[in-house]
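User: quick one - fold this with glutamine bound?
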Amino acid sequence: MRELTNEYLEEAIEDSKPFASDGNVNMSLPTFDETMKDMLGVSIITPEKECYSAGDHKQYIPMQSTSKIIGLMLALQDFGKDRVFQAVGMEPMGDFFNSISSLEYHDTSKPFNPMINAGAIAVSALIKGQSPENRFKRYMDFLKDITDNDDLQISEEVYEAEKANGARNRALAYFMQSTGTLVTDVEEALDLYFRMNSVMMCCDDFARVGLFLARGGRSPREDEPLIPPHHLRTVKAIMMTSGMYNSSGHYAVEAGFPMKSGVSGSIIGAIPGRMGIGVIGPAIDKKGNSTAGGALVKKLSLDLGLNMFGVDRIG
Ligand code: GLN
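Assistant: Sure. Structure tokens for the protein plus glutamine:
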């Protein structure tokens, strides 16, 4: 077993970087280009608030699908588990995260799970607030509390691009309206989804979200629970089974802790009681997961003994 230090993390970054060549940078994101391909950063924060980091950990990137776990926490808080899972399933899906056909052939009343696009759009329709602005403000306030970072903000450029390139997500949302899954205003649900995807964060922020999940939903500011632990168990279970899209089984076997990725190359990991992990590595594979980031979390799991199902390197 290795000791968690900044030096160890630098070494883990160097070992994992070559895997970036297996992926490609998502060029549909504004400011993303080939020069970002070899970027890789990590932060790990423990319950004692020790923070370890290495590589490009100060780089800000859009949350993209890592926002799906924040939306799910808020919807669970607002409506409870029964109502949320009337609108969305809790089963893993073997198709791509933006699959259209899976909505129709499986169960037309709800998408497979909250970690795919259709599921997250259905969940964003459940976030309470008097207006779209108010719903997004609740999302931002919650995120700022969790990350203890009042400077977090949306990238207007990314938000505009999400809207301009949102045809596929609109198709998913309008299909769900046609089947009665989405009963609120479709464009409002989509707008909130697009905004949530566009918030900029760095490794420390991603790691703090992981830590929030890992230590029972306690606010880093007040040290009071912001959300009941039973909702966090639900979120972590869904992350474990579906957080890495249709590679979730692979990551459950090879890393063995709840994670959520985004197509910006972001990964949030939560190791209950032990640490939150934030990774950025913009080169992603066809399924939408960071290639170098994925290699890194598997290495961390092995070296630091993070697999919740048991570790095989002792002493
Ligand atoms: N903005 C992307 C989309 O809505 C996010 C998807 C992702 O990170 N997998 O398709």
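One thing worth noting: The two ends are 6 Å apart (CA to CA).
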